[in-house]
Amino acid sequence: MTSPAPLPPSAPLHIVPPSDGIDLAYAERAAARFLAALGVATTGATTDTPGRMARAYAEMLTPRSFDLTTFPNDENYDELVLARAIPVHSVCEHHMLPFLGTAHVGYLPGQRILGLSKLARVVELFARRPQVQERLTIQIADWLHTHLQPRGVGVVIEAEHLCMTLRGVRSGGTHTISSSLLGTMREDPRSRAEFLALTTSGPSTTSGRHG
Ligand SMILES: [Zn+2]
User: Fold this and answer.
1) Quick one: fold of 69-209?
2) Whole-model pTM?
3) 50 C-alpha to center of ligand 1: Å?
4) How far apart are CA 174 and CA 186, in angstroms?
5) 8 A C-beta contact, residue 106 and residue 67
6) Residue 149 annotated to the active site
7) Ligand 1 center to residue 211 CA distance, Å?
8) Where are the domains of the chain?
9) Which pLDDT tens digit goes with each residue over 110-129?
10) In the chain, is it the N or the C terminus that has fewer CB atoms within a 10 Å radius of its CB?
11) β pairing state of 81-92 and 130-131
């Protein structure tokens, strides 16, 4: 039986986030009118507040581009690769208020592996846009499933939504957990249990897609 020829590193895939064309000047004028409508003065020390608001939101909605290079899994490593506690900074699409937390992203390597730092960039790619936590979780898992073609993928996100903390029910300190498991991570009870044991903690509301 002959072994297959070794696979070369992939050509870097340059990931450029979709841009809907942020118009900072327009955003600043709109922020000034928004504040005026709320009875918030923008004079004196707050003269520059509309511009700061516009730039802050532009930054929150703009992920950095990055190069995704995958490498052949020459050692046939077949155990879980896990990046824990990747920071998540996103904006809820219902209130345009931040939700903040951490993501745990793991995969069971197939023929290729990738640098762990890239997992954080994939999280950022989907976090820096108007989001809901469940969709963010699914998009990260699906993207890795498509681009890395691992045997399995698992994503758990634990986040606090400022729209819940600051308004409405004002349930400060409540964390929402969402998860998405694909492939072997979903189908094999041992892989699934290992991943979830390494990633979940504490009482929370949960939301998951295991499919
Ligand atoms: Zn919200």
Assistant:
1) GTP Cyclohydrolase I, domain 2 (3.30.1130)
2) 0.86
3) 22
4) 27
5) no
6) no
7) 25
8) 17-60, 69-209
9) 999 998 889 999 999 999 99
10) N
11) parallel
